[in-house]
Design brief:
It contains five helices and two strands, in the order E-H-H-H-H-E-H. The chain is mainly α. Helix 2 crosses helix 4. It is elongated. The N and C termini lie far apart (about 40 Å).
């Protein structure tokens, strides 16, 4: 993430993060992205999350970019590496879908 170049955004970032170090700013942005991810996940089925990762990324990026821009931050890159949960619920539901995809020659 980088500071957004517009004067208003720079002023917003200065006002919000004047007494923060890089680590605190990074944590704030990470928590913001995580909240937007949780919101997006709550609106999708497990299969949509698995098969539609690009759409999921776009949805989170669109909403989070607008939110962070108002704080003077611009998202340069955003990618979901993997989708997991603490209780392996997603893994147990996705296993049949993944196996079907792997066995399907198309």
């Amino acid at each position: 993430m980088k500071q957004y170049g517009e004067e208003e955004s720079i002023m917003a970032a200065a006002a919000l993060f004047a007494n923060s170090n890089c680590s605190a700013i990074s944590m704030h942005c990470t928590k913001n992205l995580m909240a937007h991810q949780s919101s997006a996940v709550s609106k999708m089925t497990v299969e949509e999350i698995y098969r539609g990762r690009a759409a999921f990324n776009e949805q989170v990026l669109r909403v989070a970019s607008t939110d962070l821009k108002s704080m003077g931050i611009r998202i340069v890159s955003y990618t979901i590496k993997e989708v997991t949960d603490d209780n392996n619920y997603l893994k147990s539901i996705l296993m049949p879908i993944v196996e079907a995809d792997l066995s399907d020659p198309d």
